[in-house]
Amino acid sequence: MKRSVSKKDVLQVCTGDITRLAVDAIVNAANNSLLGGSGVDGAIHRAAGPRLLALTRTMGGCPTGQARITPGFDLPARWIIHTVGPVWHGGGQGEAALLRSAYESCLTLAVEYRLRSIAFPAISTGVYGYPFAEAAEIAVRTAWGFTSDLDTIIFCCFREQDAAFINLAPI
Ligand code: AR6
């Protein structure tokens, strides 16, 4: 299928702290408990404030590869979409399918909530150990499937050097 030129601009890369982004939703790379943790999860809980934990305590967690939505509370973003990526065990334990499912679940929720803009951290590439380049390829390939449904899909890299691994060309 031919892609229109304008669709290309839906996908963007930025560097820095995702909690600062004033988009409709930022994605949290959470764990199965949804009760917070280190990395981007900790940063999001700190920036969103204590009402986030008060709510996620009632939500019963989230299976790997799925997603849940909460308000953004004190964040500039209106919503937080919490997803749980796979722990990297070498690639032979369904990690790629689970990571694709995590991205797909977030993007599907964004469409259901009629959101126009969403920003992703590099899910699973920190504590969970997923090789960055492989994870980035899955992220971009999955996001291309949603470029007709959203105006802006941002890949937010915390470390400046990670942005070089993200190739936005359609795969
Ligand atoms: N903004 C954007 N990206 C960030 C930020 C930030 N403020 N902070 C870190 N990153 P990680 P995971 C990047 O470890 O691998 C937590 O304890 C970071 O450079 O946050 O999915 C959860 O509770 C990396 O590229 O998430 C889980 O237990 C990416 O975010 C576990 O870690 C993901 O790193 C999830 O591990």
Brief overview, please?
By secondary structure, this protein is α/β, with parallel strands linked by helices.
Description:
Helix content is 28%, strand content 18%. The protein is α/β, with parallel strands linked by helices and 171 residues long. The chain has a single domain, classed as Leucine Aminopeptidase, subunit E, domain 1. It has a 6-stranded mixed sheet with strand order 1-6-5-2-4-3, with helices on both faces. A hairpin with a 7-residue loop joins strand 3 (67-71) and strand 4. Helix 3 packs parallel to helix 4. The longest helix is centred in the middle third of the chain and has 18 residues, at 95-112. It is globular, with a radius of gyration of 15 Å. The structure holds ligand AR6. Ligand AR6 binds next to helix 1. It holds the Pfam family Macro. Residues 1-171 form the Macro domain.
Number of domains: 1
Largest sheet, in brief, is: 6 strands, mixed
Output the CATH topology.
Leucine Aminopeptidase, subunit E, domain 1
Low-confidence runs? 1-5
Alpha-beta classification: alpha/beta
Protein name: O-acetyl-ADP-ribose deacetylase
InterPro entries: Macro_dom, Macro_dom-like
Organism: Thiolapillus brandeum
GO molecular function: O-acetyl-ADP-ribose deacetylase activity
How are the SSEs placed, and which strands pair?
Elements lengths: L10 E5 L9 E5 L9 H10 L1 H7 L10 E5 L7 E5 L11 H18 L4 E4 L11 H13 L7 E6 L14
Parallel strand pairs: 1-6, 2-4, 2-5, 5-6
Antiparallel strand pairs: 3-4
Helix pairs in contact: 3-4
The structure holds ligand AR6.
